[in-house]
Write a structure and sequence with these properties.
By secondary structure, the protein is of the alpha+beta class. Helices cover 38% and strands 19% of the residues. The strands form four sheets. The chain has a five-stranded mixed β-sheet, with helices on both faces. A four-stranded antiparallel β-sheet has the order 9-10-8-14, with helices on both faces.
Amino acid sequence: MDELEAVLSRVRERVLPEPEERERLRETAATLTDRTREAIADLPVEADVVQVGSTARGTWVAGDRDIDLFVRFDADLDRAELEEYGLAVGHAVLPDGHEEFAEHPYVKGSYEGFDVDLVPCHDVERAAELVSAVDRTPFHDAYLSARLDDDLTADVVLAKAFLKGIGAYGSDLRTEGFSGYLTELLVLELGGFVPLVESARSWHPPVEFDPEGHAERTFEDPLVVVDPTDPTRNVAAVLSAANLARFQHYARELLAAPSEALFEPDDPEPLDSKEVRAHLDRRGTTPVAVVFDAPDVVDDQLWPQLRRSLDGIVGGLNERGFDVLRARAMTDAAGARGAAGTPGTSDAEETDERDGAGEPTRAALYAELEVTERPTVERHEGPPVAVRKHAASFYESYVDDVDPDTYGPFIDGDRYVVEREREFATVREYLESDAASDIALGAQVEPAFDDRDVLVGEAVATLAPAFGRPLREFYEPRP
């Protein structure tokens, strides 16, 4: 424990904001709040402004530059007016800002070097009465602010730095990791960062925490943290089983061999074409890639569709005997185009931490295969001959077949069998066929998929200039 505390002490010095940084953020937030109040005064309706998120609670990691301001309108204000007045305030405060859209539009911009979200919401009495998802955020802020003391706040920052370091932080649907709000609730519930990792190393999912003991429904997620402000909601619903397992793995590693490196994000260099070919030679497998234009949607819409499409492709490949060893969806951008969930909230805060974030223009469904060519014929078994009715139907279906590529029907063991021409003997034939488009594709992926390129074998090395980083993550995976 002495070694662990020494490591954590050094990490605290690096990740806890200095007083000067805190003061600069406080002054900037105060200025923006005053400007927001002035803009609200020009509206024909009543409203107020509240700062939310990690920078409001002091739980941000040094260097983060986010300020989240919510403009709260009367709960009875209709959605169209909320959007109109909310955008008017946003553009008045951030004249160079731009509009983004989640459940409703909001204004995002920068001011004095800080990234600012100015979001309209309804001022509801209870989180359970929300009109849109953003309405619950002020309740999250109030709940945590009333319970986090200085020590727990410092431990929250440690926890966030740790989750960023192991690649499991961010509630966007690309990452499927720990949100800021979830991280803070877990530190609060377990009583600190060290108690959290000590507990996590022994979790046997599903694991459930209900801070207020008020859950009104059951959940089937691997980790359940019932929202203390909304008894019907699991704060960890977005968290994937893989990221929960990753957290457990590195919790054990931290406790067994404390290291500051676990708190430092790994930003791998992209693979080049030569390195891709070296991996292919070493592995002896055959990669395939289906490449197409990435739909022009935000990441929280794009990635679920890519994963659904990948599942369809993998299922189709396995069904036809091409035996997928491993697969993943990729885009040619290092980062995200923004989460389409809850803008600037404690749920979605600090989700886009990847350097070089940009808009993807191409997407790839990438798979590594054990088999890429199958025999021209395939075996098709009928029922046992003794099962008279079904056996006779099978036999009669093929007995008059004049196709020269069909063998049988004949008896093998106790059943009828035919050997017929395989629909697709090579993986390229399948991936370029209409059958590959018949899988369950994402709605916006489907039209782009029709104009796809199929790469097989060493041809995938040509993807390295655009997809080098996800290719390195594929061929050099970490826990």
